[in-house]
Each structure stands twice: as structure tokens, then as C-alpha cells.
Amino acid sequence: MPEISPEQQFETAAAPLQFAYWVPNVSGGLVVSTIEQRTDWSYDYNRRLAVAAENNGFDYALTQVRYIASYGAAYQQESTSFSLALLLATERLKVIAAVHPGLWQPGVLAKWLATADHLSNGRAAVNVVSGWFKDEFTKLGEPWLEHDERYRRAEEFIRYLRTIWTDDHAEFTGDFYRLHDFDLRPKPLDVPGRPHPEIFQGGNSTAARAMAGRVSDWYFSNGKDFDGLTEQVVEVTTEAALHGRTVKFGLNGFLIGRDSEVEARDVLREIVAKADREAVEGFGSAVRQAGSATGDGKGMWQDSEFSNLVQYNDGFRTGLIGTPEQIAERIVAYKTRGVNLFLLGFLHCIDDVEYFGATILPLVRELEADLLASGRLESELARNGVLVPAT
Description:
Helix content is about 45%, strand content about 15%. It has about 400 residues and is an alpha/beta fold.
């Protein structure tokens, strides 16, 4: 098994930051609040948003997976078909379709992704979501597994995808999935820098972190402060190094950029003040029950307060709230803690995406260049424990 050196880890960390946005393919926006949100779950709006995003420096879009109405999301567009539509409407944007093992047979999904990859010239990706919302399984008549079993199934799901995409006469035998002498044709495109469509996953628990280290290309973190993020990066990187791998890190953040910090903070206060309390508390109760099933209590949302839960994925905790200069500085500070990509949410999607591209992204690029030229990036990564020696 090849070893991954700190030099290779540094090379990954030194690459320019990438940016993704949450696709609003479900109704209700990204905050559970009655504040005005200039966004829409229709395809026409999302097509315009995707084009705006790729023209304003975004590399990826993440299409949400929701199957039934819950917590303010009354209507939901299916993630894979919506992702393909966005891929065909754009030229450079990579689109990540979120899927649930247990509701997809992995060979069928592998075929779908290979087809989408060819249709989009190598821009399809997948986010494997173990699942936290019990009703989405049981109301469809599917069994609900306990927490760690869901992650065992998700890991097999990912191993199966990688096997069927890369092997001729593929074989796989697991507890949940099996593959017998299967030759998938056409396989995904041979794109420089990736052997197959990129595989993302999220999660917060010990099981999720270990799984990411073993099998995933990217690990998505819910919104975190510096210390919370560093803990996850170090743990996943250490596990990955044991297996001769590197994993890239995406961090969720809800971005509120205004010309003054006072304006931005006022928007945040208004979002929370106008929160739909019943929906937020219902969401909080459901996700805490799912997370508390972990043996060590490290499940997602376990330490989230009411104000955090107003944004589904703890996006306020990342602290991307203020002037363009303040936000750019905080984004680059996260880079020194191992973040490779930011998954951003917005109140007014098209307007805010264009604001980001015009006012924040240029500052990020300047700060990144200064950080690299000064030699501070490597020392900061080492100080924060991100460069982990192979074991």
C-alpha cells in the first residue's frame, strides 16, 4: 500500500480553493424562516442560477435529496434527474447528485452516473448520504437501519461504485451488495485528475469519519468553527493515511455578505427572529434522535442550538457573515486548517452568487496567493495538525 507523505498532503491543500453552492431543488429556501428569500425551486430559476454560478467562480453544485415534505420543504425535485438537467444547461459546472443507499441499487446508479458523465463531458459526481430521516425509508416501505449499520451499507455502496467503474468483469461480495462478473460499458470518462466520478460523503460521527478515510474522495462537514473543523480534518486525514489515501474537505457555510458588518449581522438577526419555531424544533428533534444513536454521541447536530438549526446544515457556525474583506479573510483562514472547498448557501441565490463573484472571490484569490508566496501556508497547516505523517 503506498504511503501518503506530508508533501503530497501539502500539494492537495495548496491548490486553489474551490466553491460549490446548494441547489435549491426543494421549496422553502435554505433557512427555516419567514424572512424574504429570493430563490425558487423551479427548473427555470435553477438553470439561471447554475449559469450564474459557473460564470462567477463556482466549480460545483450540490443537488439536495429529499423525498417527502418536512420542516418547511413542501415540494422536492428528485436529485439525479435535476442534476442531469443542470449539467446539460452548463458548460463547466460539476454537479453532485445526493443519493441514499437503501433507496438506490448501486449498479443502477453506477450506470446512470456513467451515462451522465458522458453526456456532460466528465462533470458528474455523487454525494452518498447514509440517511438521517427515518420516514423517508419507512414510508416508502424500506427497512430503517441503525446508525452504524447505515454507514456500513454506505461504505459498501461506495466500494461497489468504484469497483464497477474501474474493473472489467467486476466482482464484489459484501453484507449488503453483491456483484458477479459484471462489465459496465461504457465506463465513466477518463478525465485527468480523477479515475471516475468524484465521490462525496458527509457525516459527523466516528463511523462517518472512519468511512471517509477509507473510501471517499471528499468529506463534507456541517458548519463548524475552526476547532471543530480541525478535529474532523485531523481524524479523517489520519485514517486516510493509514490506507495510503488522501481525502479532500468541503465545509458548509451560509454566506451573508454586505457592505458593512452591521448590515450583515442585522440580516442574521432577522433570519433567526423570523424563524419558523415549530419547524425548526421539529427538525432539531428528528436529527438529534438520529445522531444520538451513535455510540459516542458525535452524530450530526448533537451540539447545535436553536439558532444553528434555522439553517439546516449549521451554516451560520462557519462565520461567513460580514464585509467582503472579513469573509475572504475567514475563508482563507479555513484553508490553513485543511479546507479545499466551501459549500455555500445564500438567502437570495442569484444575487448573492453574483455578489460573491464580484466582491469576495477576487479577495480570496489575492489572499491565497500571498499565503502561498510567503511560505506561511505550509507552516500554518503543520501548526494546525493537518499534515499527518503516514503510519
